[in-house]
Specification:
Elements lengths: L2 H40 L21 H28 L1
Length: 92
């Protein structure tokens, strides 16, 4: 076989493979989008009343009490991590 024939066959195989992967991924995205639309249309759950799903983006909208609770939660998580790590180090 001639080297130019090998390059030609390799290029055509590469293009066929890339085309197949592109087609498969396109169909996968379309199928996922279609399933999402079907689920949203027919099986939508009502939003709970009185509860907002929005998280305040601006730090000024969050109250200082929320900030205090957040700091307390983070501090507790760090303390728990440190105690678990210290216990694991003692075992070794």
């Amino acid at each position: 076989m001639n080297p130019s024939d090998l390059i030609s066959e390799g290029s055509s195989l590469m293009l066929f493979g890339m085309g197949f992967v592109f087609l498969f991924l396109t169909l996968l995205v379309l199928a996922t989008s279609l399933m999402s639309k079907i689920i949203d249309r027919y099986f939508r759950e009502p939003a709970p009343s009185g509860v907002s799903n929005r998280i305040p983006v601006d730090s000024q909208t969050a109250s200082s009490n929320d900030q205090g609770e957040l700091i307390a939660a983070i501090s507790a998580a760090i303390a728990m991590h440190r105690t678990k790590k210290a216990q694991a180090d003692k075992r070794q």
